[in-house]
Design a protein that fits this description.
13 strands; alpha/beta; globular; 7-stranded mixed beta sheet; 13 helices; 2 domains; Aspartate Aminotransferase, domain 2; Aspartate Aminotransferase, domain 1; two-stranded parallel ribbon
């Protein structure tokens, strides 16, 4: 076998993204045992940083070892038992994922849906809560398949008033915009690693409040091999062992239940990524994402492209652009990656082949990267035969914006 060689890439997708070299350096540190006091100290500090990143005082703020989907499934599988009503407002592909996970947990799933590229008025969702009376409201904050951000500052309070548990997939928006969990009174929120936090996929920060914890602990069952006389085996228990939040609570607290072996290197990455994000500041980091998102949009418009669903509750870390007519979008993407090492994303379902999704997330969100991207992307479009484009105007617009505007 050949030695592993990875070519340099400029990843402009909605995840995964490039990571800060300081994260890579942290991941090369020596391995510690999972109950080594030095390592448990890292665990405790990581919990503190997760709280700060979500703007919450929730005790239960810790990572799930696994990709973002593991984090979402851990929360859904722990709160939803067979027969529970779950309401899922769908604005794109990842709302459908919440349906899938809730159904697999045995939930009775009810959906409301908006056309691709649109979001719900919060009053519509609250009206559905009154009509369906679910146990759980599960929804996506940043729907990367369409580039939309669902408003939800009123939904946590509405759920609490009705005895409903709110579950929010904030995988794509976490640390790319401000998500004040306590202010919005959200019960459980799942963040993401490989997007705006800008660390490798494989560990997922989550947070949930005491109200949520009390409910899931009604189904707590410690596995038999480590169960003590004090541990009750309630039924119906949470069916997943690995993704059982109640056992993970014991792992991430003073008891240090021997549930699984912690992903040491990924913990180093999460610690360092959170440290860098909080050093920058949650609000300042959000401003940086919006600043460069605006720069890219202005450049693409000046180039002559059309922004999909422009200014309609758009995410500030994903730009969706309509694929020019008579251009094979997938062949273009493939060529852009193969010839120039630049990667962008297509979309799903009804939008596949109609839009490209360009991510401006985390470490990649720098002037140098945006200017490099616009230069290569514009020239390659022209060389691919797209008519009516003006690469010079795109670059002038971008550079003028950067010279005159700041954040």
């Amino acid at each position: 076998m050949e030695e592993l060689r990875i070519e340099r890439r400029l990843i402009m997708t909605p995840g995964p993204v490039g990571i800060d070299p300081r994260v890579s350096q942290a991941m090369s540190s020596s391995i510690l045992g999972q109950f080594d006091p030095d390592f448990t100290n890292i665990m405790n500090q990581t919990m503190e940083m997760i709280r700060a990143s979500f703007m919450t005082k929730n005790k239960w703020s810790f990572p799930i070892d696994g990709t973002s989907r593991a984090g979402i499934e851990a929360v859904i599988a722990s709160i939803v038992k067979p027969g529970d009503k779950v309401l899922v407002p769908i604005i794109g592909r990842f709302g459908q994922l919440l349906v899938e996970l809730a159904e697999r947990a045995g939930g009775e799933v009810h959906t409301i849906q908006r056309p691709m590229g649109e979001v719900f008025d919060q009053a519509e969702i609250i009206a559905a809560l009154d009509e369906i009376q679910p146990k759980v409201l599960a929804l996506v904050h940043g729907e990367t398949s369409t580039g939309r951000m669902q408003p939800m500052d009123q939904l946590g309070k509405a759920c609490k008033e009705r005895g409903v548990f709110s579950v929010v997939d904030a995988v794509a928006t976490y640390l790319g915009t401000v998500i004040p969990v306590d202010e919005w009174e959200l019960d459980a929120v799942i963040g993401g690693a490989q997007k705006c936090l800008s660390i490798p996929s494989g560990i997922t920060p989550i947070t949930f409040n005491d109200r949520f914890a009390e409910e899931i602990n009604k189904r707590k069952r410690v596995e038999s091999g480590i169960r003590t006389a004090e541990d009750e085996a309630d039924n119906p228990f949470i069916t997943s062992n690995y993704l059982d939040l109640t056992q993970l609570q014991d792992y991430w607290s003073e008891r240090r239940l021997n549930h699984h072996t912690e992903a040491t290197v990924m913990m180093y990455a999460l610690y360092q990524g959170l440290r860098l994000a909080l050093e920058e500041g949650v609000e300042k980091r959000a401003q940086r994402h919006e600043y460069h998102h605006t720069a890219l949009k202005k450049a693409l418009k000046a180039l002559g492209l059309t922004i999909y669903s422009d200014n309609h509750h758009e995410m500030k870390m994903v730009t969706c652009v309509e694929i020019p007519e008579n251009l094979d979008g997938e062949a273009f993407r493939s060529g852009l990656l193969k010839e120039y090492g630049v990667e962008i994303a297509s979309s799903f379902g009804a939008l596949h082949g109609k839009i490209w999704r360009i991510g401006t997330m985390g470490y990649v969100v720098q002037k140098m990267n945006i200017v490099t991207f616009v230069t290569i992307f514009s020239a390659y479009l022209v060389n691919s035969g797209v008519k009516g484009l003006d690469p010079n105007a795109a670059l002038r617009t971008l550079l003028t914006y950067y010279e005159k505007e700041s954040y």
